[in-house]
Amino acid sequence: MKDEEIDLYIEAGKIAARILAQGAREIRVGVPLLSLVEKVEGMVIDAGAGLAFPLNVSRNEDAAHDTASRGDQRVFEPGDVVKIDLGVHLDGYIADCATTVDLGDHEGLVAASREGLERALESVRPGVTTGALGKAIQKAIESRGFRPVVNLTGHGLAPYMIHTPPNIPNVGFPGGAILKEGLVFAIEPFATTGSGQVSEKPRAEIFQQVAVRPVRPPAARRILDEVRERRGMPFSRRWLSDPRPDIPLASLARDGVLRRYPVLADVAGSLVSQAEHTLIVTGDGCIVTTR
Ligand code: CO
Q1: What's the pLDDT band for 1 if we cut at 50, 70, 90?
Q2: Closest CA to 48 of 88, 9, 86
Q3: Does 91 share its domain with 153?
Q4: What is the domain count for the chain?
Q5: How far, CA to CA in Å, does 80 sit from each of 58, 85, 133?
Q6: Which among 187, 204, 210, 241 is least buried, having the fewest CB atoms inside 10 angstroms?
Q7: Of 26, 142, 163, 242, which residue is the catalytic one?
Q8: Ligand 1 centre distance from Cα of residue 153 (Å)
Q9: How far is the CA of 98 from the centre of ligand 1 (A)?
Q10: 276 an active-site residue?
Q11: Do 52 and 162 sit in the same domain of this protein?
């Protein structure tokens, strides 16, 4: 990787870390989810950066992929465990980071995913396997009495691409990809009081264009025109100018042009925490870009 590319990753990381921390401070009981996402996404644009994906705001058993919809009436409630997951990019060079805000009494759960992340970051250096990172995460989370979420993983990053190989599991397994100098990826442990497996809810607010092909219905064409500048990065239903985009979104998803990102949740009544950083593997460890 060229020095200029490393610099862009580091600069994007600084912006993301600062805005994630500011966003976390805005999360209080009674604050509308919609005002939080608008504020945080606005801060990214004001910083001269781009959003690599809509701000994810997922509460309680919802682990990932929720965000506010247009006209969203939801507010943060007492006891909520709130995950915010932010993706910032500069010329496509992405910083992906997340944190959990506890509006209840769940310090242990929040600490579990954070510790899993720290133990994994300490282990990163060339030659280490992704399976070993998963083992470090699993051990930290289980030692605090929680379960890691087995079917959510960290992921490689590449220009304009938020999910590239390798996956970084949240549980140990023998083998896996071997880390090499210059590899850029995000580690994102999830700790849960539930089953340790997420499944899809009906709600989907986040979409991504995954294929280019001619589309006839005008409403669907307008959506593709609007999201072209995303260069394949995910977008929010809330960002579209069409106030009722559900029918064209559904048809584009059915035709394989768009991918839906349904909300991913553990069992009802459970609580999930998340912590995430982006890093670049160096000769003897890593640079965490989103500290
Ligand atoms: Co991520």
Answers
A1: confident
A2: 88
A3: yes
A4: 2
A5: 10, 16, 29
A6: 241
A7: 163
A8: 8
A9: 8
A10: yes
A11: yes
